[in-house]
User: What shape does this take?
Amino acid sequence: MKVIHLLKSTALATVMIASASFAHAAAPAPQEIVKTYSDIALAMYQDSLDEARQLKKAVEALIANPTEETLKAARTAWIAARVPYQQTEGYRFGNAVVDDWEGKVNAWPLDEGLIDYVDASYGKSSDENPAYTLNVIANEKFQLGNTTIDATKITPELLSGSLHEAQEVESNVATGYHAIEFMLWGQDLNGTNAGAGNRPATDFDTKNCTGGNCDRRVQYLTAATDLLITDLEEIVAAWADGGQARKDILSKSPDDALATILTGLGSLSYGELAGERMKLGVLLHDPEEEHDCFSDNTHNSHYYNQVGMNAIYNGRYTRIDGSILFGPSLADLTQAKSPAAHERLSGLLADTNAKMQVMKDTADSGKMAYDQMLGANNPEGNKILLDVVDGLVAQTRGIEQVVSDLGLKIDVEGSDSLDNPTSVN
Assistant: This one.
């Protein structure tokens, strides 16, 4: 595969360079497409790992010298680490290795009272979660059901083995990006008004501690960051030559391999992103349904999901260093086999890209954060999000047309917020 360098471009503009410019004279073989798909997966996850290592350096600097400046730098590093990772989510919903692994790094939403102190408005208990206000940072020993847990030292093993999804409660999220996000920002208590979480740097200052238990808060942040790196190393290995994820898709029949790729694109586009991550929040006008709810980074998470879907379909991934990895793609195959379906899907992707860009630009400008767009009395913000939802639903229909024209079959994940919105409350 070739690597070329791009000097200036935006992410969505880059991936939407007409695939005809790189199309093959004849339809590429499915095996070639699967190789490109696997190589891009490896590159995306490797970039995610590299950015997580940069995050670790920023966390270490914060711990060594807890100031507002080092806290801001750690937050900036966390946001940067989300960019490549969110592009990988098109590899979910069809690759068993990814589906089994993903919950360790990107599970949400989380009940933050499991981890640390919370505002009184959070409440003291939950019928669904006995560990709702466990606060492991404040407690060296505690009960989980009939088990006494020794948390004298907060380690990666404690987080992954005893706390994460404890008692089979999905909102007991103790690991991954969102646990680290909560540690760096704290709760966002602004509802659908302006403002993100505002944890002070002194929460990590063992000599001038706020919030109590600063030494254990440092342990938790360190353990969660180290564990994120370990988990990303695992998935990088799975997509490397000889890794299980790569072997799995290479061993599938041509039709099944192509269906796996399209299942990921369709399910992320429809049920997950358009439905559970976006439409549901607008229906409920609830900032708790915001994906990156502590940092107000949700607009970027959704935007880079779309960037990733474009990259997978077109077989073109812009790496963190600005180089572009590309090869035979689904776009090439569809263009050769069904030009009309390819043209339709390319147009629908471009339309969603434009709507995503409006959402991102509105948030990045400071005019209106994503959680403000969710507000019950904000028709302008609601429309921005619902326009994206409409674009995602339409592009899913385009994906389904490609599936049909290639003679394939897939099952796309659904969402009540799209399929039965009157049931959502």
In short: Residues 2-417 form a domain with the A middle domain of Talin 1 fold (CATH 1.20.1420.20).
